[in-house]
Specification:
285 residues; alpha+beta; 6 helices; 4 strands
Length: 285
């Protein structure tokens, strides 16, 4: 590999380029799929937390202890990766019980959309954001998980009583993905280097060394003008066939030169005879 333009260097660079491109694309695809899976799982986790939060509030309503609801909210928010959990009051509740505390009021379009009956999820900062915000509407029903909401709220069935909003952090999960990506990249890099070393060794044994032997033999024949040397044939692949063809060419050259030598010898003998006859003729004259 001393010559940067050698066939070995060209082949190794080509193989390394293809491997690096394939490895990079596969790694990036794997990370993207993992992030999508994490977002899906985190969204479902946030919905489960929202449902658990409202179930707890519902139980406190039935027990008449809604004054202690802030402790439930604090407990929910104390969970790992939960950034925010709050109850948003709808118009029917505001009309009956007032607007409530500041965190129970809608703050953006997503809250307003939930109060109109539409559940939604959002990833602040784009698809690769570090959190997911879900807002689930609360609909009055005569049988909401075994509870008749209409006995406590004088509204018609299907009225939007409010919504539950939960913001769930993805930072910890993304950190794990990035750490796994770094480990996988290091392993892939190590395997790549080991593979390149193995390919280099195999290439030298199968291709480069036989070609070097052919080159050295041809240089020796050219330097010594000795057509008796022949290449060793150690395989039946393309290089072995090349060696065989080269040996056949040397045989043909040697045969042709032998014929030329014989012809020259015969011409020399004929010339000698002609010269002798000419001398005899001259002497007789």
């Amino acid at each position: 590999m001393d010559n940067p333009t050698s066939i070995q260097t060209k082949i190794l660079l080509s193989i390394a380029s293809v491997f690096l491109v394939l490895m990079s694309v596969s790694m990036l695809f794997m990370v993207d799929r993992q992030k999508q899976m994490v977002q899906t799982l985190a969204t479902e986790k946030a919905r489960d937390i929202a449902n658990s939060y409202f179930d707890g509030l519902n139980a406190m309503m039935l027990a008449g202890s809604m004054a202690q609801s802030r402790f439930l909210r604090e407990k929910i928010q104390s969970h790992d990766d939960v950034i925010e959990a709050r109850l948003i009051r709808g118009k029917a509740i505001v009309d009956s019980f007032g607007p409530g505390s500041a965190e129970q009021r809608p703050v953006d379009d997503q809250d307003q959309s939930a109060l109109s009956g539409k559940a939604s999820s959002r990833y602040p900062g784009g698809a690769d954001g570090d959190s997911v915000v879900i807002v689930e509407p609360i609909v009055a029903s005569a049988n909401f998980k075994g509870t008749n909401c209409l006995t406590c709220h004088a509204v018609s069935e299907g009225t939007i009583l409010g919504a539950v909003r939960v913001t769930y952090s993805l930072a910890h999960l993304h950190e794990k993905i990035n750490r796994n990506f770094a480990i996988a990249g290091a392993i892939a890099g190590g395997l790549f280097l080991a593979g390149m070393v193995l390919i280099t060794w195999l290439m030298r044994k199968i291709v480069v060394n036989p070609l070097d032997e052919i080159r050295d033999t041809m240089n020796t024949i050219s330097r010594d003008a000795d057509l008796r040397k022949r290449l060793a044939i150690n395989s039946h692949d393309e290089i072995g066939q090349l060696s065989s063809s080269f040996n056949s060419m040397l045989n043909n050259f040697a045969t042709s030169l032998s014929h030329v030598s014989d012809t020259s010898l015969q011409l020399s003998k004929a010339t000698s005879k002609i010269s002798s006859v000419a001398q005899q003729t001259t002497a007789a004259a």
